[in-house]
User: Fold these one by one.
Assistant:
Number 1:
Amino acid sequence: MKKHIKGLVSLALCGAMATGMFTGCGASAKGKGSNGKVELTLFTGKIETIDSMNDIIDDFNASQDRIKVTQEYQKDASSVIKVKFAANEAPDIMTTYEQEYADSGKYMDLSGQKQWWDRLNPEMKDMCTDVGTGKQYRVCTNTTNAGFFYNKEILKSVGYDKFPETYDEFHDMLTKIKDKGITPWFIFGSEAWHLGHLIEFIPHGYIKQKYGTIDAKKAMLDNDKDKLQYGDPNGAMATFAKNLVQLKDEGLINKDVLTATSDNCVQDFVNGKTAMLSNGMWVLSSLQEADPKIASKIGFAAYPSYMEDMKPVVLNAEDSGYCISANTKHKKECIEFLNYLFKAKNQKKYCEAAGSPSAFKDVDAKWAPENIVKQVKDVTENSVNIGYTNEKPAGFSGDDAGRLVQNLLDGQYSPEKFAKEYEDAWNAGIK
């Protein structure tokens, strides 16, 4: 734990310099350091894997004397990267990916890196493929799922052996849980990315389900308003907002939703104070670190349907994707580091720390207890599988969407006004 805190402090200081004058961490990636080594920056927003990634980076740095890699973590990564690109201070390697930056040539074309693609599961390569060009500007190392993680014992105590599949049933279950003095659903709304994910998985999930993966991607890229209908007062976005406000008003989510953190969520879940949370597989490592015995109590479920023509949806997508800046002076060194990072032994370590299965065919990692692995398999086989919303405009990030949800929960918008604000922000982001 001390190592983790020390790393966060160091990274926070580094991030502050990068966001301000763009000296220190960001600037060092543009040439050689005082020691004559090529200095590379790996930019990430993944807090769950900071320590394991630093271990791999330390091993790489010690394995040769020509390249030094430094990891820079930013909590608000998708917003910070916009500033870095605008200031021509893009990191050499980054885990943030936005369609507009691919369209504008800010990422290196990785299509020729046969040593990676030959090892990758074909479906994950497809998810890393740009719809417009057919090229790959990022490579993922993992697959992930997102849905509801719930306490099976709590649900069983209110009469539910199976997670509800419709919103009305879901609402009734939350009400029964509240009557037992337990917070039904914990949302850590102080972290904008988390609320942005709710948008990606629920209202965007409806669009992806309705039109299918490829047509939904094209609709978002083309900003096809007839299909997206973000501002429709009776559409998926407004209905999502209406449901969320209802749950808040009825005390079916935590009262401190706007100030709660992911750490608060983890602690309340393992202590039995809340019945469920929405997140991706990456949360498993935090839950098991907080309580090594919690795995046997964890259930996993899809997001219930809430539109008339909708089925339950679950995220089944690429995770831990890496891009190389098209403007880095050290493309060869970036590839050398990624070759090292992608070694099977390093990916096994990373997968087990992240609680996420590998996208590489030659990596065998025990990423979760068997009971959870089985539940994930069952849910993905019996729900509509959706991917991430990578086609959103770079001018309107997932964090930006999350801040609109914060305003909604703060009472600044009606559900209909929220839907219109979302549509306007999406359109402005494209312009």
Number 2:
Amino acid sequence: MQKTIFFDLEGPLSPQDNAYEVMKLMGKEGAFIFEVISRYDDIMSLEGREGYEPGDTLALIVPFFLLHGITGEDIKKVSERAKIIEGAEYLFEKLQAENWDIYIISTSYELHAYNVGRKLGISENNIICTELDLERSDLHENIFSLIKKAQEDIIALYSDIDNTERIVNRLDDFFFHQLPSLGYDIFTTRVIGGERKAEAVRAIAKEKGVALSDVIAVGDSITDYKMLDEVATHDGISVVFNGNEYAVPYANVGLASADIRFLHVLCEAFERGGKGEVVEVVTDWEENRDIFEKNPADIPEKCITEDIRDFIIKRKMPFPYFHNIQRADERRKEEIIEIHKRVRMQVREEAGKLG
């Protein structure tokens, strides 16, 4: 079996939502605009609007970058502030030493995705992300006036962010009627989210000659649910890491933790015995977590690596939560979602509230 693993970036590998932080360069109003558009993105995605994919937020905010003169250099500077999730460097070093093929499939703009990938030792060739062109010399004053008016209206909508009808009506008009009437196509920025992530997984697996039952995918949000579902449906392992309510139901395995090194336990189990072994290990953790926490030295060898056992004993850090999601009923899934969202907010802070 060729060992292949696919990671989302923002959430599993870095807590920063890069686009959200870039929007804050416009002041607090930039954050308001992003949150309203992110809410709109959730609505459009759940509605299943034709031609729209989760994560297209990153296309919808581009007009505001242009209005405020945001540059690629600005995005790069914001990215340089991004932290790496605890344990990610350890995990990637282990996986690389064990000859796993590691891919990052991210909605993130390429400047951010390549930066985080570089910190983790991943080649740009193994990163699929969103290309962004901010060199638009064809825009005229009428378009900027339109964007400025939309900005004012969106900021006003922030105080009523739960009023989905108002948000949809105003943003539909702006993005799908007003801008196109002046020759601006918002979707010249092709965001790698939703079905496009699933497409990337299928394309890479086909090129490598690997069945989806022989891969692991890791994600956490609405932009990942189609990728997680694709892998789970084909009997691979889809891991939701500190996920939200949009992602958890589509994974077959859950890991909620402040430290992603615990994913290595599942990677080793997958290498030993495929999906069946992973499910056994996850179920053992889920059913015996309290016992494991009291006596980490006695955790069965199949459920832990010696490195991670030593780490737990020495660091005395909060214990991870593993979940067998594929066997969970709806009530149990709600409980799992609450655990994941709690850890998610601890790890991702402000970005944790975004879809």
